Description:
Layout: H1 9-39, H2 49-62, H3 64-85, H4 92-137, E1 144-145, E2 148-155, E3 166-173, E4 176-184, H5 189-208, H6 212-227, H7 235-240, E5 243-250, E6 255-261, E7 267-270, E8 273-276, E9 300-303, E10 309-313, H8 315-318, H9 330-337, H10 343-358, E11 366-373
Antiparallel strand pairs: 1-2, 2-11, 3-4, 4-5, 5-6, 6-9, 7-8, 7-10, 10-11
Amino acid sequence: MRSPLRSSPRPGARGRGRVLFTLMQAVPFLIALAVLVIELTPAHFLYTGPLLTAVPALAAVTLGPRGTAAATAFALAIGATTATYNHAWGTLQVYTNFLALGLVAVAGFITSSAVQARRQRELDQVRRIAVAAQEVVLRPVPARLGPVSAGSLCLAAGTGARVGGDLYEAVETPYGVRMIVGDVRGKGLSAVRAVAVALGAFREAVHYEDELVEVMNRCAAALRREVAVPGAFEEEVRLEGFITALVAQVPDEPVVQLINRGHPPPLLLHRGRATPLVPSEPSPPLGLEDFGMDLPAKPESYPFVPGDRLLLYTDGVIEARDRDGEFFALPEAMERIGAGTSPPAFLEQLHRALVRHTGGDLADDVAMIVTDRHATGRGPVSRQAGVP
């Protein structure tokens, strides 16, 4: 994949589009204010009736039913104000203007309501299809995998109907329990295709590759092959797309082995304290191997003893904001919930905490895997520095 830096103007274009749409929504109110200015100045000889009539019609195009009603009320208030100021009450022209304004407002409200209902039905249908497509690729992890019990959770963003690119999987293999969590840059069917490619490579490689590094390399190679196919991905994904990924292995020994390619570090809950397992050296995401950063040659090991809880997640969790712009404090939330619940119950409580923090409006998709260590094949090992 090519560098995401080459597509940097795109967010600015989207920002300009939002500004333009906001200006379009303000046009009906600006017209009504222009009528007020004309009627309260020497220019009141101009006939402004058609301008006020146009206010609800324009509002119906951009503001929806509620906005149309608000714009109509504003236009009526200005019409009443100007009629009073100009002592025009009782004239046929004033009542004709109000009648025309009312008829256009009713028509605009009905049309806007019908259009909004149709768009909502279409959006709901597209979203159901998108979620179904995502569920075909992703599947809940088993409740028990070797020495760990596990749970998984995937939440779609609260806005829009485009499928995100979050991925996860956990598989019991001859080498231990192997897991992956990742996030594709971008959304839509191209992101789902990238998720399917990465997960397909992972699900096969975990059973045949002795080394965890080779599992990650197989995922990266599969993605490069798929991107090279003409027309396999939209141009936006070709410019912006890459996958941050984390691969974990839980063998019989009381450790967890990690390979992190640009992904948020997992959290290890040990004796009530949540600690991020940060890699010693940063590594590039999948698809950005040609930018000069070293690739991991071997996994990094961290103690993972009975009673510990390990959480793998995507950045939609830690980047979730409340109304004041504050990020979700995932380590603190994990410590509050603790390790006394089952993995599904833990994720349910974490889900509720996330909903409370965001007010139910997730800006990005969320994927999580949580595992609890129950048994080891050997005695305890010393913990590394930075992990109590």
